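Fill in residues.
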């Protein structure tokens, strides 16, 4: 019986299209004005300082951030700044997150059964919490037991999953849309499944279970 679940977001709980067609364009459009308006904010300046050396003004910082977005870099400071931009969007009502229809019922069923569910995403912990707090099904953060981002390590690195297991006191099942991540989790002692959701990128042939819905976990021990 699986008692701990670790979930990816993009392509697992949330359509890839939401990330690439809504969240990223929103951050890209807002980066210059956000940095200009918040240049004296200590949190913003701390993250900017980690993007590149000698960024002296908001315009230069925005150019660097947008270039890194073009490269799809999974850098902590970049993800943190994106999270702050999305925070403004969610709070203003300009953003509303998207989740697959099976996610909220699955999370509620797990919680009611005393099971634990965690999130591990390349997006910042702030961005993760915001996404689950602003879903069409309402605020789902109370159904989740914790969040992990790349501060624990890269998602294709088995050591990242060992660190998560050490922190939560258990391994369990990791669900993702990326084969390399499933392999890393498996190497670290986790069970793993690959999600085949609408819009997900095809993965190479593999031996992991393939689920089209998280609801499969309610009836499966893998």
């Amino acid at each position: 019986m699986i008692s701990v679940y670790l979930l990816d977001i993009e392509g697992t709980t949330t359509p890839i299209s939401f990330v690439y067609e809504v969240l990223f364009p929103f951050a890209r459009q807002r980066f210059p004005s956000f940095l200009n308006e918040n240049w004296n904010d200590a949190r913003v300046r701390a993250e900017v300082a980690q993007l590149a050396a000698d960024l002296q003004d908001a315009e230069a910082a925005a150019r660097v951030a947008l270039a890194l977005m073009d490269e799809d870099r999974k850098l902590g400071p970049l993800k943190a700044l994106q999270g702050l931009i999305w925070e403004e969007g969610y709070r203003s009502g300009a953003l509303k997150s998207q989740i697959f229809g099976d996610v909220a019922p699955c999370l509620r069923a797990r919680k009611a059964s005393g099971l634990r569910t965690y999130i591990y995403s390349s997006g910042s912990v702030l961005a993760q919490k915001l996404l689950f707090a602003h879903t069409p099904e309402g605020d789902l953060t109370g159904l989740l037991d914790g969040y992990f981002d790349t501060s624990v390590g890269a998602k294709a690195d088995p050591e990242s999953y060992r660190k998560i297991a050490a922190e939560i006191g258990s391994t369990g099942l990791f669900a993702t849309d990326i084969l390399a991540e499933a392999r890393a989790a498996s190497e670290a002692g986790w069970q793993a499944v690959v999600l085949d959701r609408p819009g997900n990128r095809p993965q190479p042939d593999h031996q992991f279970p393939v689920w089209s819905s998280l609801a499969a976990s309610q009836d499966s021990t893998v």
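The chain has eight helices and six strands.
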